[in-house]
Amino acid sequence: MFTNTPYTAQTGANGYKISTTPSYTSGTGSQPYAGSSIPPNPYATSAGTTGFGSTSNPVSYSNMQGLTNPLGNTPNTNLYTSPSSLSPAPAQTQKQVAGKQISNTQAEDEEGAVNFHALVEKRERENNRDVYEGEPYDCLKHLTQQQIDDYAKRGITDYLNCLRLSTKQELHSKYDRTLKTCEVQGVQDFKDDEFPPELTSLVGSNQAGRTSWKGLKWLRPRDIKGYTNFALFQDAIEPNDIKQGYLGDCYFLSSIASLAEWPDRIRNLFSLDKPNPYGCHCVKICDKGEWREVIVDQFFPCVSAARGPSFTKGNGAEIWVMLLEKAWAKINGSYDQIEAGLTRECLHDFTGACTQTLWLDDQNTYDSVWQKLLIGEKNNYAMTCGSTDVASKEELDKLGLINGHAYSLLGAYEVTSQGRVTRLVKLRNPWGEREWTGDWNDSDTKLHQLNPDDKRAIGMHERAENDGIFFMSYDDFRKYFTDAQICYVHDDFEYASIRAQSAAKQAKFFKVKIPQRGRYFFAINQKSKRKYPKDQQKEFKYSTATLLVAKQESDGTFKYIEGQQREDREVWTGESEDQIYEAGTYIVYAKVQWRNNDFDEFVLSAYGSSKVTFTEITKVEAQNVISEAYFDHANRLSKRQKKLLADNKSWILLDQTDDGFFYLAINNKSDKILNGEFKFTKMGGLKLKNPFNGQSVKVSLSPGKHACAILRVKDYKQLTALSLSQTIQFK
């Protein structure tokens, strides 16, 4: 006979806060529940058991409290269940088949219930704006009849060259078309009509809140004091070259300063490495998941020619910093729109790489976060962090910190001090001043007493006084900083994307060809909330996006790879350093549960060791993918995580993944037909997907066959309980 033991608090393998699983007690001793899946599996027994025993004492999960979703989302998925291996089960009652009473060795009946708390949203959301893509180049379109006549008077050769440019030469790049237009028209000071040097580009719709900006002047570099001999880059690209102005976009500064640690990451954002005679520049930005050319002119907001640029600028007469900021302002609507934000926005949009937020206030992640920082240091990932805004300003001032401020996270190190290993982080204030004054500050003797190898490892020899760079212990870092951002940028990775439109409840499927073994990130990209006026951004919520990747094997089966579900601007897979994709064909399931009526388009992207190719396929072509992928997920779990049936070989499993899906897998490994009926007596917030419906799953499985029923989460807020009863017969 099985009985329940009390629950105690515990954190599950996927980060969920759950109650511990019950121990089942029988006449032969106690066998603890060994499953690690979340939620706890009410069917799990250790290998060698014959099921639930000779009685049908229900296992109650009504005491489970505190299950929370760390993603802070409200998942809603639309899954498909493979109809293969399924046939209608014989008519039966719960304990009777074909009018006969079933013995306890033939049928099993059990009930389980899982109770959940309503989820609290935790994710911060960010924003985007569509960029004008340009039109096919036609130089004659930009000329008046008088200009054309002038060309003819100057000679037939010039005129024919003009025609050749418009009819024969293929200028696919918007920037190339713009430069040719400038060349044909003899432009000397290009002005961007899409983001003109006017007040609207400064304040957008917030003119009332930016009255002081009305006096700013738009000046060219040659008209600004100290910029007579300006250049795109002067000497080497240095992170310390970045100077903040009157705009509160320190998140932008710390992001590009982190990228500038590797100068080519900045240089590659520009189409040309020096100014052109037209004053026309092109910055490449990954906007809403697609790399785009953002064309900007070189008119910059200034208080006066003598005082120079008002906003972010470089150190000296280089203009690359101002151009990056202007391009960032353009795609987001105005300079006013880029005040305040998350560094992961910029890190993603200037690299195309997925960026992860690591929260520092959870003691359970103390070591795991540290390991990620070490990996980030080792792999040259761009990293940033944000200081707390909870501690008092006075306390932070004494420590040399700025509250609610973005810093570049330059590295994580383990050094030996006073005979023991100490964890240190290395940070940079993008202001280039105001450094940490606590333990391990620049004057601390502990720092200068490190052995030569440790000094070399942490870059002590590269330091200058009052450069904004400082060290602090990992413990102090967690105390005074709220989060760290890791951008998984790889300088040799390739990027690919495909745009898709979908209705509110429509899933999309894509066939992906991966030509080379390696690491890959897949992402669903939504429009950013920055496209909205600031007064609307506070209430804006990203739509729930669901992403699942499965590998198509040579025998036609599908292998579960990974998945994710979240409410965020980018929802992505690929966090694990150990997740390596083999060359081959994969199927990606992508769904966005649109909550914003003006949205119906997303971009699916891949970032990895080689350039993949995407092909959108139909639901019919992918009808078996979801159920087969989740059966593979179940099949790879250990026996201890499954409920073994009476034959001690067949099994069932109820599980949930990080993808936000629930599934019920049944595998008949016997030499008899398995007839089963599974009734969800409680399933608030869940819905069975085809070929099943209602609250019942009936299967009739021949020997060696399996089935997998998928449950779609309609609303996590309604997901209060999941309770199941079952009847199984072998015949």
> How many domain regions?
4
Number of strands: 36
Terminal CA distance reads 26 Å
Number of helices: 15
Give the radius of gyration: 30 Å
Portion of residues within helices: 10-25%
Mean pLDDT: 78
Output the strand order for the largest sheet.
14-19-15-16-17-18
Low-confidence spans: 1-142, 156-160, 162-170
C-alpha geometry: globular
Q: Could you tell me the strand content as a percent range?
A: 25-35%
Q: What does the main sheet amount to?
A: 6 strands, antiparallel
Write up this protein.
- This protein is of the alpha+beta class and 731 residues long.
- The chain folds into 4 domains: 9-121 and 634-730, no CATH class; 139-349, no CATH class; 356-487, Alpha-Beta Complex (Cathepsin B, Chain A); 494-628, Sandwich (Jelly Rolls).
- It is 17% helix and 29% strand.
- The strands form 10 sheets. A 6-stranded antiparallel beta sheet has the order 14-19-15-16-17-18, sandwiched between helices. Strands 24-23-26-21-28 form a 5-stranded antiparallel beta sheet, with helices on one face. A 5-stranded antiparallel beta sheet has the order 29-30-31-35-33.
- Strand 23 and strand 24 form a beta hairpin.
- The longest helix is centred in the middle third of the chain and has 13 residues, at 320-332.
- The radius of gyration is 30 Å and the shape is globular.
- GO terms for molecular function: calcium-dependent cysteine-type endopeptidase activity.
- Keywords: Hydrolase, Protease, Thiol protease.
- Residues 19-30, 44-56, 66-79 have a biased composition (Low complexity).
- It holds the Pfam family Peptidase_C2.
- Residues 1-110 are annotated as: Disordered.
